[in-house]
Amino acid sequence: MGSFEVITMGRIGVDLYPEQIGATLAEVRTFAKSLGGSATNVAVAATRLGRRAAVITKVGNDGFGVYVRRALAEFGVDTRWVGTDQALPTPLVFCEIFPPDRFPVYFYREPKAPDMNIALDDLDLEAIAAAAVFWTTGTGLSDEPSRTATLAALDARRQRDFTIHDLDHRHHLWRDGDDPRRWAREATRRATVVVGNTDELEMATATRDPRVGAAALLELGAKLAIVKRGHEGVYARTASAEVTVPPVEIDVLNGLGAGDAFGGALCHGLLSGWPLRRTLEVANAAGAIVASRLACADAMPTMGEIESVLARKVAT
After folding, report:
1. For residue range 260-305, what is the model confidence (pLDDT) as tens digits?
2. How many angstroms separate the CA atoms of 68 and 59, rounded?
3. Which are the contacts of 273, defined by CB distance < 8 A and separation ≥ 6?
4. How far is residue 130's CA from residue 117's CA, in Å, rounded to a whole number?
5. Bridging pattern class, strands 234-237 and 224-228
6. Is the pLDDT of residue 187 over 50?
7. Lowest mean pLDDT segment, chosen from 1-5, 19-23, 66-70, 75-79
């Protein structure tokens, strides 16, 4: 196969999303099962767009671990770096769905998720260095040994063009007394592209202002800073340019996973050599499509679906 076009590293699990929209977990009767986890979803999204992708992660030695390996293979994501933790269970994620903008998430990752046990010895640093795009997440910084492994993987890249860090901040996955801002900044110093929403930008830079926060990320070493602003669209900044892309109007069903679709399409656009505006428009449309669907990984769009949404936007 040669070098991978996209390698992601981080969270994996099984999403169990309610089929009764607008119901609390106490009221839900049935759930839809699908592959989940931010880094995993990004790899699936990139594969759906035709890229050769792999994910570095770990699952438990249980039936859900078997399921996620099979699901990855069915999506076309290489599983050679999906390890097995013999002691910890594969994580589960539940949510409640209250469109258009409330989607509480409940992570079952106790006593610890296997993907937090990714260690330096688990990494193929040569393959990581050779990949055209390498993607890490803030969740991977929230515990050891994953934190050390994530930073070592970023170091192996030596500032290659498409070394992407997703701020991906889940405050409840951090221990009291930890300093997520410190580690977000350490990752930003090693990355060339940094992505996050407004809340994550504030966590990393102490400001919600997209222009000021993006500039702060550039000062730390990033070459491209991207701020996802939900219904306000996307803002991106480089040393020489600023780009703002308006939102795609769509009926939202479940906003979870939209950012991962954005990420997979971002990888595709960067690899395609598109202008930044075109890349962000495609990524924005990919996120909107997933927001209009129930699942995450299963909902990742094809390029044809994205182009169809963009064409409708132009027509209106």
Report:
1. 999 999 999 999 999 999 999 999 999 999 999 999 999 999 999 9
2. 8
3. none
4. 23
5. antiparallel
6. yes
7. 1-5
- What is the pLDDT averaged over residues 183-200? 98
C-alpha distances in Å from residue 139, one per residue of 136, 172, 274, 311: 9, 10, 29, 35
Given this model, what pLDDT does residue 2 score?
A: 61
Q: In what order do the strands lie in the sheet with 82-85?
A: 82-85, 53-60, 6-9, 133-137, 163-166, 193-197, 224-228, 234-237, 242-245
Tokens of 16: 């169990």
Please count the other Cβ atoms lying within 10 Å of the Cβ belonging to residue 228: 26
- For residue 187 the two structure tokens come to 């990752």
pLDDT at 259: 97
Pairing of strands 6-9, 53-60: parallel
| 122-156 confidence digits (pLDDT tens) | 999 999 999 999 999 999 999 999 999 999 999 99
